[in-house]
Specification:
heterodimer; A: Alpha-Beta Plaits; four-stranded antiparallel beta sheet; 10 helices; B: alpha/beta; Rossmann fold; seven-stranded mixed beta sheet; 6 helices
Amino acid sequence: MTELPVERPAPEKTPERAGPRTTLQKLLSRFHFGITLFAVALSGLTILLAGVTALLGSADRNLELAAQLGAYGAEPALVFADPQAAREGIAPLTRIPGIARLRVLDDRGKPLTEWTSPAKDPIPLLTGIFFPKPASVDVRRNGSVIGTIEVWGDSSTLTDYVRIGLLAGLVCLLITALGTIFLARRFEYELVKPLNEIATVAHDVRLHRRFDKRVTPLGIAELDRLGGDINALLDELQGWQGTMESENKILAHRASHDTLTAMPNRAAFDEQLALRIQSAQSRNDRFALLFIDADNFKAANDNFGHSAGDAVLVALSGRIKDTLRKGDFAARIGGDEFIVIIDPLGNDASPDDLASRVRAGVARPINLPGGDSYAISVSVGVAVYPDDGTDPTALLTAADAAMYTDKLTSRS
Amino acid sequence: MLASLFLIGTLFAAPQMSIQAASQTIVEDSADGRARAVNRMLGGIISYARWPGKPANMPRSMCIVGAPQMTNRIAPGGPTVSVRRMTVAGITDDGGCDIIFMGRMPAADRLRLIGWVRSRPVLTVTDDDAACVHGAMFCLDGRRTSLSFSVNLDSIGRGPLRIDPRVLKIGGSE
């Protein structure tokens, strides 16, 4: 068999990708998580800032209100300069959360009473930033200032809010993570699955040469375009594959057959003989090998020309074929030499019968192209497996020898 | 909000006991510190009293009866109080007193005066009844180093005079 010169472009080297490979799902998941995290963080921060601002405003108002209440409650105490009464006047304020310190000053700025919250300030720094000055309210009596109430806030309200805010943010983050996983799963189902389908088809084609496989429509425009291109590529590949197979068949036939008579050639015969021996051996059967040689073929060539010789060979091959039964095999192994394998060989058939049957089959004169007629005769040698030999060479030699004997006999 | 409601609630819930000594004003450590403290306290008490049918900042007349125990220079803080010395008979006849300051006086006179004051818009203050059991509305107490006052809620409750509950609270609780 001839090696086909198939044009094979050097495969392009795919550049090695740096770093570990990742799956599409992981990529999408990371992407989703990033976006959602960003959104949550942004909105959370906005809400927190807005909340803190509003809270600071209300905390300031709360302090102001507390100071007003203190002014009302401590007014008589200031009038009577009574520290005990002042303490009682501001006592209700001490129960308001978020107040760190209270002070009642008289008209000369001297403290009448003072109270400091026993609760520790959670974050003194925040207090310093957001409540640097006390809420201060003057106590007036008949139009003149008789004292001042000062109320200091602390960061406890703020920290409470921020703590709740952070907790809510954490919960949001958790929900975000769950949502991201869910979204990624959905994406995997809707995107990765179709991609996998394409990959499966490509893999099948590459590994099992299943050129009839096609990518089914996936319902995603971009992927369908990809699938369509792959299908078109597969169509072309299948076409090429078909052409190549038929060409291979033709070439194989040419390699094993004689071009003139279209009979199997020597190589095909050698192959066939080996097979028949093997088969007969396993079946414990017999077959006959007939060596057929045209008599005086050289004379035909010389007298009528090579085209006439060719016509004789074609006609002879046709007549030999006609004598074949089903299962028999005929080949042209040389210029005017033919071989016939009679297989299976019946027990009753003798070699001589076989030879005369062939001789009789080809005995009619052949009409040559020029209008002449040529009387053909052949010499036939028979060898029987396993009587005359059990290997191809022995059988062929025996048949050859028998044919010569026959030729000599017929000449004499 | 709740806290402010609570605050107002405590201020207006007047204690139901009738007499208590409570307020303790700081007495300045000078020669006439006591007189000034007494006058300041009187001014304060007067400023928290409301006479029905009369404007808040109208001039008031104070009538002193009996012998004041704490100071002889009674001149309550605030510019709108005029002070007169009167007898019990003068007060009951005249009827022009908005405030009666009761010094030391015979028990019969005092009873007569308290009886007359009842159901009239007159503020009564004494400095001779530390326990505040003899019928005066406000009782100054100078027994201790500091000056204080008590209120007699019975007396206040019987009259038409209105007293700011914050003052009642100061004078009514320990």
